[in-house]
């Protein structure tokens, strides 16, 4: 929120929410402590930081240091960030303006001044600075996101310790992301947000994230784990990932990023925005495309995609001055995708011979979707109280036409053993080498047509106050949410004839026609209590869920009801100015999908973490141990994990399980002088898992499980490291990423052939040249050694990572 002269200005009109918020702010103002007289402090949490040896925020003139320690850079200059040189001697930053839709990770810090009060950002979790939080938090800042110009959200998130991914299409169109060992399938066990709003198509009714925002338009990304996870829900076992979009600039700004590369890669990204004293707007659009890196047998053709995303923001200050300030913001979004993506992979032998090959049986596979978004937010500020209320709605329609199965065999089983007498015929049909000879080897292809609605009303109140020697940063949140999914899945029979797919005269067969819906009320409260060198953060979350499911094929209907209370507690203790210890425990929760049998239980766990954190300006070293004790681990069958129609969306209760490990993170920027900096970072994760009960599941990732088996798709070791050099004229950065081999099916001991992914080591390099104040040229080379590995065999056969890709781009801005 921009600063204004301290004058009272009555609003011309009041809505009911505004009146309620004003009443709350008046009550809060009456309970505020007296003004600082020199002995006290106007901002308790930061004053406690200073008093107890926590490093202060970096000087505004040191832009390189500020990018390493502040969560969000100057929003007035944000659109020009890609063009800004990381020179230590850069001009002083102007005051920062707070976005009207500021997420829960951002808080404005007041600093007294003889002439004015300036505001600047401090990364916070439940009211405490990032350095003093009692949970695990990682914020990927603009400088880090721009350093390698990545588009794949999974590749970006894996730079954070404790984040895993299962590869699929190589582009990251539908990332499979997990935190601290939770099932990464379609990121359904992770709470996903954009600017504090749930963005999943149906976060409760169908949490599989078939939509992810384009990472290239994000200003920053925040990953929360540990006790802080109960701030966001409904998925709290692993944590949350929040994408922060660009804010409205304080002055007229425009810039354009255009790039092209191998496989006809193309990117066009433009931003234009401006502000007056009371109003502002931002328009942003991204077009991303590729012809694809896979070669389709015999017929050839495009195996790539096109993505478009548009965002418009408008802000108007209803009451810009006085003790109670109010702002209204509207955010509109539109996204679409047209991709020739498939679930069909290769046999291991074919992968070894040509990893980028694609069978002709997938020639008709095609995904098309579009999505709309509207968010209206009202923000009220009064003294130490800030209340943000948002109403939102998101609609997504998608249709994915793809090869599903043979009438007489599973494609996954055929590719697992393509040379057997029975499977050889099916394999020949997949590759187009044999024509369909019977009804059993006909291919069933059809669209999974789904429509989603996600809408709700949420309000977050933050209050900073003192009670004696204790400082409080209280956060209260309430959300009423509704979402639904309508599924209409059909199949048609196709014959392989002369290397081409030919549709039969059989009628279309409907495999699924159902609707699931959920109403949910979520409440949470946290309080960061500071006392001397200690910060104690108790919190609690309550989820009240009512669901319903109707199956139009069978006529069956069901209803579900669930109430879950999730307490948590974290503590941080400062040992020295730079070093502190922290620990916490909380209850993890994942709701069951609608339409499950009454015997099915929600996923529950008690999660613990403890660690040490050393911070100084531009430097951070952290080591965290975590232990997740599941009383009931769950799994939901999906197409992406290899489940067929009869088992689709069915939940399995796996019972007790352990997931534990160690996360290590370090970053430092060396500044020898002369305007040259050397940023380096390292992220390492060690993870072990153990299922503690026997059970059976229709999901191919589990099957018949015995106590002691390890979970699938959780690497034991994962490492990410970067090193770079940056000057006023440009920079050069190199990154290395290593991920250990992963089981593809629950088990123990040595994995059988065909049930283990390949270990993978890749290197990326990015170079930039600021050839003028308003222009930058960059070159990005991904997977420069062109390493190819099997990253997954789900759902049907071996899938490769993306090959070496070189991209050249230019950024222009005014």
TrEMBL record:
<keyword id="KW-1134">Transmembrane beta strand</keyword>
<keyword id="KW-0998">Cell outer membrane</keyword>
<dbReference type="Pfam" id="PF00593">
    <property type="entry name" value="TonB_dep_Rec_b-barrel"/>
</dbReference>
<feature type="region of interest" description="Disordered">
    <location>
        <begin position="90"/>
        <end position="114"/>
    </location>
</feature>
<feature type="domain" description="TonB-dependent receptor plug">
    <location>
        <begin position="132"/>
        <end position="239"/>
    </location>
</feature>
<dbReference type="InterPro" id="IPR036942">
    <property type="entry name" value="Beta-barrel_TonB_sf"/>
</dbReference>
<keyword id="KW-0472">Membrane</keyword>
<feature type="region of interest" description="Disordered">
    <location>
        <begin position="26"/>
        <end position="75"/>
    </location>
</feature>
<keyword id="KW-0675">Receptor</keyword>
<feature type="signal peptide">
    <location>
        <begin position="1"/>
        <end position="29"/>
    </location>
</feature>
<keyword id="KW-0813">Transport</keyword>
<dbReference type="GO" id="GO:0009279">
    <property type="term" value="C:cell outer membrane"/>
</dbReference>
<dbReference type="InterPro" id="IPR012910">
    <property type="entry name" value="Plug_dom"/>
</dbReference>
<dbReference type="InterPro" id="IPR037066">
    <property type="entry name" value="Plug_dom_sf"/>
</dbReference>
<protein>
    <submittedName>
        <fullName>TonB dependent receptor</fullName>
    </submittedName>
</protein>
<keyword id="KW-0812">Transmembrane</keyword>
<keyword id="KW-0798">TonB box</keyword>
<keyword id="KW-0732">Signal</keyword>
<dbReference type="InterPro" id="IPR000531">
    <property type="entry name" value="Beta-barrel_TonB"/>
</dbReference>
<dbReference type="InterPro" id="IPR039426">
    <property type="entry name" value="TonB-dep_rcpt-like"/>
</dbReference>
<feature type="domain" description="TonB-dependent receptor-like beta-barrel">
    <location>
        <begin position="413"/>
        <end position="784"/>
    </location>
</feature>
<feature type="compositionally biased region" description="Low complexity">
    <location>
        <begin position="59"/>
        <end position="75"/>
    </location>
</feature>
<dbReference type="Pfam" id="PF07715">
    <property type="entry name" value="Plug"/>
</dbReference>
<dbReference type="GO" id="GO:0033214">
    <property type="term" value="P:siderophore-iron import into cell"/>
</dbReference>
<comment type="similarity">
    <text>Belongs to the TonB-dependent receptor family.</text>
</comment>
């Amino acid at each position: 929120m921009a600063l204004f002269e301290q004058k009272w200005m009555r609003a011309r009109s009041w809505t009911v929410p505004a009146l309620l918020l004003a009443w709350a702010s008046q009550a809060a103002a009456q309970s505020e402590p007296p003004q600082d007289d020199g002995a006290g402090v106007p901002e308790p949490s930061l004053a406690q930081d200073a008093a107890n040896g926590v490093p202060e925020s970096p000087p505004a003139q040191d832009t390189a240091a500020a990018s390493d320690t502040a969560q969000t850079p100057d929003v007035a200059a944000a659109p020009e960030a890609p063009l800004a040189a990381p020179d230590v001697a850069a001009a002083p930053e102007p005051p920062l303006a707070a976005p009207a839709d500021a997420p829960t990770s951002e808080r404005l810090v007041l600093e007294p001044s003889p002439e004015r009060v300036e505001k600047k950002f401090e990364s916070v979790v439940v009211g405490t600075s990032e350095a003093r939080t009692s949970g695990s938090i990682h914020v990927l800042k603009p400088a880090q996101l721009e350093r390698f110009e990545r588009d794949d959200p999974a590749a970006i998130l894996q730079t954070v310790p404790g984040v895993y991914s299962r590869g699929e299409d190589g582009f990251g169109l539908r990332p499979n992301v997990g935190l601290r060992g939770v099932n990464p399938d379609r990121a359904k066990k992770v709470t996903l947000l954009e600017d504090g709003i749930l963005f999943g198509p149906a976060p409760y009714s169908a949490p599989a994230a078939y939509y992810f925002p384009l990472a290239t338009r994000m200003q920053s990304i925040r990953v929360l784990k540990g006790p802080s996870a109960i701030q966001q829900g409904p998925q709290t076992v692993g944590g949350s990932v929040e994408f922060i979009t660009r804010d409205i600039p304080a002055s007229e700004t425009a810039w354009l990023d255009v790039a092209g590369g191998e496989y006809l890669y193309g990117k066009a990204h433009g931003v234009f925005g401006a502000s007056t004293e009371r109003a502002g707007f931002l328009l942003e659009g991204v077009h991303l495309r590729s012809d694809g890196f896979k070669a389709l047998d015999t017929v050839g053709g495009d195996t790539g995609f096109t993505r478009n995303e548009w965002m418009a923001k408008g802000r108007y200050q209803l009451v810009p001055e006085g003790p109670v300030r109010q702002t209204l913001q509207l955010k509109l979004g539109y996204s679409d995708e047209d991709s020739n993506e498939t679930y069909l992979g290769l046999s291991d032998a074919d992968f070894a011979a040509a990893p980028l090959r694609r069978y002709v049986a997938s020639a008709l596979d095609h995904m098309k979707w579009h999505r709309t978004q509207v968010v209206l937010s009202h923000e009220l500020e009064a003294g130490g109280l800030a209340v943000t209320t948002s109403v939102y709605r998101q609609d997504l329609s998608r249709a994915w036409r793809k090869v599903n199965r043979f009438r007489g065999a599973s494609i996954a089983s055929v590719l697992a053993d393509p040379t057997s007498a029975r499977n050889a015929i099916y394999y020949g049909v997949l590759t187009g080498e044999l024509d369909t000879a019977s009804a059993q080897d006909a291919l069933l292809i059809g669209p999974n047509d789904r429509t989603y609605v996600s809408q709700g009303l949420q309000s977050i109140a933050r209050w900073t106050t003192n009670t004696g020697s204790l400082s409080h940063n209280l956060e209260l949140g309430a959300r009423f949410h509704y979402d639904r999914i309508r599924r209409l899945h059909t199949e048609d029979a196709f014959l392989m004839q002369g290397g081409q797919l030919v549709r039969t005269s059989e009628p279309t067969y409907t495999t699924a026609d159902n609707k699931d819906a959920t109403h949910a009320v979520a409440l949470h409260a946290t309080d960061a209590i500071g006392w001397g060198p200690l910060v104690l953060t108790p919190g609690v979350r309550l989820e009240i869920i009512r669901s319903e499911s109707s199956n139009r094929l069978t006529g069956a209907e069901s209803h579900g009801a669930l109430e879950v209370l999730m307490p948590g507690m974290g503590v941080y203790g400062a040992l020295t100015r730079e070093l502190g210890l922290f620990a916490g425990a909380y209850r993890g929760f994942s709701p069951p999908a609608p339409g499950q049998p009454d015997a099915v239980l929600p996923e529950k766990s008690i999660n613990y973490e403890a660690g040490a954190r050393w911070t100084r300006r531009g430097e951070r070293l952290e080591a965290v141990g975590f232990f997740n004790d599941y009383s009931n681990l769950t799994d939901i069958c999906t197409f992406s994990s290899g489940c067929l129609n009869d088992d689709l969306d069915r939940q399995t209760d796996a019972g007790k399980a352990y997931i534990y490990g160690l996360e290590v993170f370090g970053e430092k920027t060396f500044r020898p002088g002369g305007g040259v900096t050397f940023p380096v970072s390292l992220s390492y994760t060690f993870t072990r898992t153990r299922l503690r009960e026997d059970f059976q599941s229709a999901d191919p990732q589990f099957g018949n499980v015995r106590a002691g088996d390890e979970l699938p798709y959780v690497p034991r070791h994962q490492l990410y490291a970067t090193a770079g050099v940056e000057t006023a004229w440009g920079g050069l950065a190199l990154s290395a990423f290593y991920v250990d081999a992963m089981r593809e099916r629950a088990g123990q001991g040595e994995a059988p052939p065909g049930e283990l992914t390949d270990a993978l080591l890749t290197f990326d390099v990015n170079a930039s040249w600021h050839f003028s104040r308003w222009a930058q040229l960059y070159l990005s080379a991904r997977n420069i050694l062109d390493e190819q590995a099997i990253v997954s065999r789900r759902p049907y056969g071996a899938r490769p990572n993306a090959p070496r890709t070189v991209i050249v781009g230019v950024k222009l801005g005014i």
